[in-house]
Amino acid sequence: MLSLQEAIDFDLDAMTSGFGFTPWAPDTCPTLEQLMASSPSSTSSDDNAAACGEENEEEERRRQRRKMSNRLSARRSRARKQQRLEELRETSARLRAENRELAERLHAVARHTLAARCQNARLRAEAAALARRLGDARRLLALQRLARRHVTPPPPPPGGAAACAAPAAAAAVLASLMA
């Protein structure tokens, strides 16, 4: 920091060196003590302090408004987040219920399909058995027709048991074919 004399010398040197202009005449130039003692500097420091205090108060008010605004914004953000979370929970519950319903329907359809397949297998087996019986009946009928055409039974003997044995044997063969 400069001493008082250095400050006086500095100011005068700065004013007169190279500029060619002095704001005061040499006899009317105030001294540093006079300048320091003058009231405008002391009031300006009071004004500066008051202005600084007002600036600090204004800055504090702005800071408080920002804090309040940030708190409200955070509260709104948390509320939106909570609302979104509730919506997601509702959607999840609805989708889970729908999933359970679809799974139940799938199981019912699977049971119905299994029952239909079992019934189809039973009906196919029954159809195959009936087709075999029909084929056997057709063969028997064809044999009966053939037997009637080619085999003409001799006239029955007047009381002979051997004569009755041939038609009985043919009937037994036909009965075995039918079964």
Describe the SSE topology.
Blueprint (H helix, E strand, L loop, with lengths): L3 H13 L15 H6 L1 H112 L10 H18 L1
Keywords: DNA-binding, Nucleus, Transcription, Transcription regulation
Organism: Oryza meyeriana var. granulata
Protein name: BZIP domain-containing protein
Could you characterize what this model shows?
The chain is an all-alpha fold and 179 residues long. The protein has a domain at 57-149. The chain is built from four helices and no strands. It is rod-shaped and about 190 Å long.
**Structural class by sheet pairing and helices:** mainly alpha
Helical residue percent band = over 70%
Backbone shape: rod-shaped
Low-confidence runs (pLDDT<50, min 5 residues)?
A: none
Region (Disordered): 34-87
GO molecular function: DNA-binding transcription factor activity; transcription cis-regulatory region binding
Keywords: DNA-binding, Nucleus, Transcription, Transcription regulation
Main location: nucleus
List keywords for this structure.
single chain; 179 residues; mainly alpha; 4 helices; 0% strand; DNA-binding transcription factor activity; nucleus
Short description:
This protein has four helices and no strands. With 179 residues, it is mainly alpha-helical. The longest helix is centred in the middle third of the chain and has 112 residues, at 39-150.
